[in-house]
Amino acid sequence: MRPGDILRSRKGLTIEVTNTDAEGRLILADALALADEEAPDLLFDFATLTGAARVALGPDLPPFYTDDDGLAGEISDAAARVCDPLWRLPLWRPYGAMLESKVADLDNAPSGGFAGSVTAALFLQKFVSAAKAWAHFDIYAWNPKPRAHGPMGGEVQAARAIFEVLEARYRR
Predict the structure, then answer these.
(1) Treating both helix axes as pointing N-terminal to C-terminal, what angle do 116-125 and 23-36 enclose, rounded to 10 degrees?
(2) CA of 123: how far to CAs of 3, 63, 106, 111, in Å?
(3) Is the pTM of this model over 0.70?
(4) Between the CA of residue 135 and those of 103, 116, 140, what are the distances in Å?
(5) Residue 12: how many CB atoms within 10 A of its CB?
(6) What's the angle, vertex CA 148, arms to CA 142 and CA 153, rounded to 5?
(7) Domain ranges of the chain
(8) What is the spatial distance between Cα 96 and Cα 61, in angstroms, rounded to a whole number?
(9) pLDDT, tens digit, for every residue of 25-74?
(10) Which class in CATH covers the domain with range 6-170?
């Protein structure tokens, strides 16, 4: 793809490519649209989508986004119980205007550098409509230095908290 390309998503929305480095959200958008077609009770996505999340919260505290306050509470409580830190950030609707394009339904990555993680989450939210609840996790998934809990390198983030949420909801 090249800057200026217009892509049609699985959901049918057209997307103007303004940043070719934001290709991950294009793939994730189609994956979310596919999963959403089944109208699941819960839909979670995890991605190392933006450096903006790491800049805002550092490498140890991944943000998550949902407009479902009940689900947000479940996630926050589970994260605290299992020591898997997560922090809810807002799906701030006014920033949705940053996703507007003059030639397509959406811009894949607004210019200006402001609210990068929020606008990425707002972009993804456009591809989820049938799921009863959805949350996006903008994880870093990397230890920049060795620590007591693990060596430098890849790090699982949010998995323990989400397992706790699922177990609490669906324990039989």
Answers:
(1) 30
(2) 18, 16, 8, 14
(3) yes
(4) 29, 17, 16
(5) 8
(6) 20
(7) 6-170
(8) 24
(9) 999 999 999 999 999 999 999 998 888 999 999 988 999 999 999 999 99
(10) alpha beta
